[in-house]
Amino acid sequence: MLLGWLRRRAASQRAKALVERLLSQAERNQLRRDGFLEVPSPSVSGRRYRIPRRGSPVAVLGPGGRVVYLCLQPEQPVAPEELLVLHKLMLEGAEEEYWQRANRVGRPMGRGMGRRLLG
Fold this sequence. Notes:
The structure is a single chain. The chain is an alpha+beta fold. It has helices spanning 2-22, 25-34, 80-93, 95-101, 113-118; strands spanning 36-40, 48-52, 58-61, 67-71, 103-105. Helix content is 49%, strand content 18%. Strands 1-2-3-4-5 form a 5-stranded antiparallel sheet. 22% of the residues are buried.
């Protein structure tokens, strides 16, 4: 029991260090302030991705105002901070593959999530 807790804590600390290294100060500020990280699409002008602090589902805001939610999870469990970074890196570097692998979901999970992501 204690060993499992120590492993989860160590994983969480490594994930937080990863966020500190890979996100800019402005991105970290946005994440703290808004509860999500907004990433512009590298291939579609005006499309934005809003990745919530817990990493999924990701809100896709289209240039025409259309909103789609995508859910993509790794095969092995990762800390929430790592999941957020995984989404960011994949959207920036392999957006088409992200769309091919992700499941479209009707709406985000959790109380009030949609209002926070889209507000």
